Amino acid sequence: MDIRRAVGAKAGIPSEKLDDLLRYRESDRFTAREHAALEYAERITRDELEVTDACMARVREHFSEAEVIELTFIVGFQTFASKFAKALNLAPQGFA
Asked: Which of 20, 63, 72, 19 is nearest to 41 (CA)?
């Protein structure tokens, strides 16, 4: 279990929902707001994807401008932390 899953579990997110994260598009466990946030995060982090106008429109349907900025920062920071750990070959912390 990684830290993000451990934090999600501690925050009360059901394990079934956490299990469905990679299948969020097909899962009925996520709200439209969550779908918009997950698609946005995916498009930010995957090099072959672009953050399209349509994606931003869906995000802005569910989030205020301040929330969009915060969401963007969190996605960017987590991406940085992942790359930082990879570059320094940091071992997983073993959260369970």
From this structure: 72
What size, in residues, is the chain?
A: 96
Q: List Cα–Cα distances, 27 to 24, 35, 64, 70, in angstroms.
A: 5, 9, 25, 25
Which backbone phi and psi does 28 adopt, to 5 degrees? -95, 10
Using CB atoms within 10 A of its CB, is residue 67 exposed (0-12), middle (13-18) or buried (19+)?
A: middle
Mean pLDDT per 10-residue section of the chain, whose length is 96 residues: 76 91 94 97 96 98 98 94 89 64
In a domain, 96, yes or no: no
- 81 falls within a domain: yes
Has residue 93 been placed in a domain? no
Full domain range(s) for residue 44: 3-87
Region for 57 from its dihedrals, namely left if φ exceeds 0, alpha if ψ lies in -120 to 50, beta otherwise: alpha
